[in-house]
Structures are given as structure tokens and as C-alpha cells.
Write a structure and sequence with these properties.
Elements (H helix, E strand, L loop, with lengths): L2 E7 L8 E7 L8 H14 L22 E2 L2 E2 L21 E5 L8 E3 L2 E2 L2 H10 L20 H11 L6 H5 L6 H12 L2 H4 L2 H14 L10 H5 L7 H16 L1
Parallel strand pairs: 1-5
Antiparallel strand pairs: 1-2, 3-4, 3-5, 6-7
């Protein structure tokens, strides 16, 4: 395939960025999207030009680092996949593909297509954990009965990889789907109930301090999420937050 790539280039967070056009030829439909960008960068390097910076790690759809806005959609036109799992057969010969970083105040651009998503780390650090006494008087986890539906919902919430697609898809750049998934995976289990009140209050407060917007109620976050995190988690977090606010 022969394609035209319109790519956002930005030297650093303090420099004004712009879209730059790059023609690319010989793209195989079985290439992944990142392999296609590798081919482009090899060509740029051979010409003595600066390659396009983009983030990635596992290339197996596990880490979420490869987050890109492709033709206006987080992770591109396919569903249930991250950018590294997107294949070029989703595009046609002659297409123009627009590639941008995720856009959000809380995700400042580092360079080109790489954004700083450490705001997600700070939300998790605010309460996305449980404190367990391991001094010797521990209890076997299997000795605590857990409802099967609750366990399944908890594991489903825990599949969130923190890629930020929910934020990029939301017109308000809301992080409520991400935060609610991290709240839900503990709220549904007895081990997480001990610190439930402080957890949800601290995580929601940190989410607001990072500059994320409010939920838009459009559901774009669930649709674009590569792991299919359910909107039910937002409803659960809201219930947890109201209950915690009353206790406090």
C-alpha cells in the first residue's frame, strides 16, 4: 500500500507543534501499525532526518504504552485492541492517516506522539492498593468466601491497562473510567473493604487535582477502551464516593 501519514511533530512540551505530511510506500497489510511507523523512521534516519518519537513497550496489547490517536480515534479504527495490535489491513491503498498524541490537559506532550501519563500513576498511588499485615498473623486468601459474580467483576475491572484511551475519547478528557476501574477491583472484594472509604475519596480527589474533566455520559470511553472496561464501574465508584462522603 501507498499511504500519506499526517503526523504531529512537537520538539518538547514548551514548543509549538504542527502536522507534517509523510508519504510512505510498500506497506504490507499484515504489518502492525507500529511496524509501519518503524519503516517510516528507518527511511527518515537514512535521509538524515529526525525520526518520529512514539511510545511502546510490550507490543502485545498488555502495557498500553503505545497509545496513539489515529484518524480521531484512540488506538485507531479497530475495536478491543491497542495501537500495537492494530494491523494495516484496516486501511486501504491511497489512504491518508492522521496520527496524533492523546489530547488532554493532564497528558502533556513530551515529544511528538509521546505524552506524560504519570497523572494516572498518582491517582493509583492515592489509593489503588490495599494494606496487608504480613507480620506472621496472616489469613489464607482462599479462606475468605467471595461471591462468584463479584470476583468476575473485580477481575474484569482489573484488566484496565491504564492506556488513557478513555481520556482521549472523552470530550471532557475525563479519567472516571480509569479511576472507577481501579476503585472497583478492590471495592468488590472483602480485602478491599477495609480501606474503601479513604480509597475512593483520595483517588477522586487526586483525579480532580490532575485536571481531568467530569464524566460526559456519552459512553465513548467504554467503546474505545481496548479492554472493554464497563461503564458500570463509574456507577459503582459514584455509589462508593457518596457513601464515603456521608461517613466522613
Amino acid at each position: 500500500m501507498n499511504l500519506t501519514l499526517k503526523i504531529w511533530r512537537q520538539q518538547d512540551a514548551n514548543t509549538k507543534g504542527k502536522m507534517v505530511d509523510y508519504p510512505i510506500s510498500g506497506v504490507d497489510e499484515d504489518m502492525s501499525f507500529l511496524e509501519m511507523l518503524d519503516v517510516l523512521n528507518e527511511d527518515l534516519i537514512s535521509k538524515g532526518e529526525e525520526p518520529v518519537e512514539f511510545d511502546h513497550d510490550c507490543r502485545e496489547g498488555i502495557c498500553g504504552a503505545c497509545s496513539l490517536q489515529i484518524n480521531g480515534e484512540p488506538h485507531g479504527p479497530d475495536r478491543g485492541v491497542t495501537t500495537c495490535q492494530l494491523h494495516m489491513r484496516m486501511f486501504n491503498d491511497g489512504d491518508t492517516i492522521t496520527i496524533e498524541p492523546f489530547r488532554a490537559k493532564a497528558f502533556p506532550v513530551i515529544k511528538d506522539l509521546i505524552v506524560d501519563r504519570s497523572s494516572f500513576d498518582r491517582i493509583q498511588q492515592a489509593g489503588g492498593f490495599i494494606s496487608v499485615n504480613t507480620s506472621g498473623n496472616t489469613i489464607d486468601a482462599n479462606a475468605i468466601p467471595v461471591n462468584k459474580h463479584d470476583a468476575d467483576d473485580s477481575f474484569a475491572a482489573a484488566t484496565c491497562i491504564g492506556c488513557g484511551a478513555c481520556v482521549a475519547a472523552c470530550k471532557n478528557a475525563s479519567a472516571m473510567l480509569f479511576t472507577s476501574a481501579k476503585v472497583s477491583q478492590f471495592a468488590l472484594l472483602p480485602q478491599g473493604r477495609v480501606e474503601a472509604t479513604d480509597r475512593v475519596l483520595n483517588m477522586v480527589r487526586q483525579m480532580d487535582e490532575e485536571g481531568f474533566g467530569n464524566c460526559s455520559n456519552t459512553g465513548a470511553c467504554e467503546i474505545e477502551c481496548p479492554k472493554g472496561i464497563s461503564l458500570e464501574n463509574i456507577a459503582r465508584m459514584n455509589r462508593e464516593y457518596i457513601a464515603a462522603s456521608v461517613k466522613k
